[in-house]
From TrEMBL:
InterPro entries: Peptidase_M41-like (IPR037219), Peptidase_M50B-like (IPR049500). It comes from the Bacteria. Keywords: Membrane, Transmembrane, Transmembrane helix. The chain crosses the membrane at residues 21-40, 90-113, 119-152, 164-187, 207-228. This is M50 family metallopeptidase. It comes from Dermacoccus abyssi.
Length: 237
């Protein structure tokens, strides 16, 4: 009798530990995929899809009318909206792109930690699915369909443990890739980007906006670590 009791007490913590271990493995893999050049190059197309969806969603909330979205083979993208040529609506729309992957990643980490993965996937399906009808190039449609197919498969056929791991992996990738993409703005010599467009719209230096994008991405990564319960090691002694 005592033997059976001791076995049951040791099995329960093991099950919990296995689920927690799977979560952390998925998070580490997600970050690694964003750091390895070959996997980042492919995954960046999904990051661009989220980036452009951020532009589109905020443009609608700001009262602008969406005209088109393009996702290009070089992992760049473009969202065209119609409305006033200046003002807060334009600034907010331009601001939304680079923070979008980091904020989606942060929300995914929160969903994974608090058992709201299904709701997280549903929101992404609705938002990204809405952008599908605005895409104006074949490559963009293919990319978005691939992203949506992955989300549908995750929602319909994945076991809860699999869905949790996938959510954690994708979220960690988005957090790391969002920071990497913001940092890459400083090395980019291309004049047509969100920071330069914001500089023209606000008469503030593009470097200021690049720094702001990095700050938001870094803050999202730190917040994600806080949600997961990471803490600085206590000083010994």
């Amino acid at each position: 009798m005592n033997l059976h009791s001791s076995v049951s007490l040791t099995l329960a913590p093991s099950a919990v530990d296995e689920g927690e271990a799977l979560l952390w493995v998925a998070l580490v893999v997600g970050v690694a995929l964003a750091l390895v050049p070959s996997t980042y190059r492919w995954g960046r197309h999904g990051v661009t899809a989220v980036h452009e969806a951020g532009h589109a969603l905020v443009a609608l909330l700001a009262g602008r009318r969406l005209r088109s979205i393009r996702l290009n083979r070089d992992s760049s993208g473009e969202t065209v909206s119609v409305g006033r040529s200046g003002g807060p609506g334009v600034v907010l729309t331009l601001l939304a792109g680079y923070p979008a992957p980091s904020l989606v990643g942060l929300s995914g980490v929160w969903a994974a930690r608090h058992d709201h993965v299904e709701a997280w996937v549903l929101v992404l399906l609705v938002v990204l699915g809405g952008t599908l009808f605005l895409l104006r190039n074949v490559f963009g449609v293919v990319v978005m369909l691939a992203v949506l197919a992955g989300l549908v498969a995750l929602r319909r056929w994945a076991e809860p443990e699999q869905a949790l791991a996938a959510c954690a992996l994708v979220s960690a990738f988005l957090l790391a890739a969002g920071l990497r993409g913001a940092l890459e703005l400083f090395a980019s010599r291309v004049g047509a980007n969100d920071a330069s467009a914001l500089a023209r719209a606000t008469h503030l230096p593009a470097a200021l906006w690049k720094t702001a994008f990095v700050a938001v991405a870094l803050a999202a990564a730190v917040a994600g670590a806080w949600v997961l319960g990471l803490q600085w090691p206590a000083a010994s002694g």
